[in-house]
Design a protein that fits this description.
The protein is α+β, with helices and mostly antiparallel strands and 412 residues long. The protein is built from 13 helices and 20 strands. The protein starts with 12 loop residues before the first strand and ends with a helix.
Amino acid sequence: MGKESSRSGAVSQVIVIGGGAAGFFAALSVREHHPHVRVVLLEKGARPLDKVRISGGGRCNVTHDCRDLRRLAAHYPRGERFLRKAFRHFAVADTIAWFRDRGVELKTEPDGRMFPTTDDSGTIVDALTSAADRAGVEVRLRCPVTALEPQGSRWVVRTPEGELQADRVIVASGGSPKREGLQWLADLGHAVVDPVPSLFTFNLPGDPITKLMGVVADPVTVHVAGTKLSSTGPLLVTHWGLSGPAVLRLSAWGARELQERGYRYTVRIDWTGGLGELPVRERLRDLRDTQARKLLRNADPFGLPARLWAFLLERAGVDEATVCAELPRKDLDRLVDVLVNDLHEARGKTTFKEEFVTAGGVALSEVDPDTLASRRAPGLYFAGEVLDIDGITGGFNFQAAWTTGWIAGRLA
């Protein structure tokens, strides 16, 4: 097998645990680097790649067009330093080339997100499953792993279908909402960082802003009061509260801090995207001269959605039928405050669509970023969200899956 397998001798069979993005990529990487090795992929569900199917609203946000490795790694609240090393082996350009070589072209949207040109996640699922079929990867569905045990220089993998033996095992089982779901790895001697949700939306129960369901404002700056957590970008109002990239990024960076607060905190919104109180005040004052006879409801100087502007006027206690030239100073002061310092009480969270992401997993200190090999158990490798790695929304979590899967599959 060459130098890649010299750590423990020849390799004849590799088992990959998990049929998600990282698992499929790891299995395909094994076959690419070691074409004579038998690869068995075990997936506990009835069909593989479910998260790929639902991601990006069914379009699959494959990666993000960020080619600078340091900047790319900076999009990961957990795992930045680890991924700086891993991305040297496989990063965005490699992902694009890998899919292109298999007949899938990707396109870049204005915000940097990359999707298949078909706008159909099925294109990515088909590419992975077809590649696995051509490569001879044996995929077993409805086959959960009940135990994983070292046996000399090999591994015993127990399933309801019986016992399997492997020279190498790649764990790509995904994140777990509870520590118990990772206990089997802790039992092998690995430190496990307790999982908490990441990429979630903010619940604002009973808040009148939910009447604006469907409204998008961009750019908006969202803060968590009393913390340094802040994010700027598009914000979406939903029937339960707040979502959109600005909120999802904030939830990722603040995953642990917000969990420690019991998901009870004050959200401070700057609807102007960070213009600053003085420029906001000056724009509103200018309305008295530039749009003197216009009604305030028709004179939004910030380009906000009409429904949102009307809501903010009402929230500030300002009559929307006021003529701009007659806007009282007290009304102007209240409107400035609402525009740059709008406070809402968050109580709880909601998972972003069905795209469950966790912060936590196998501690990165116990995994080699250049090989994805366990530092605790020879012959064991990790890939994907089972590691304490998570990225913000925008294709970064999939890129981490492709990268770690490809590196683990080299069996270095």
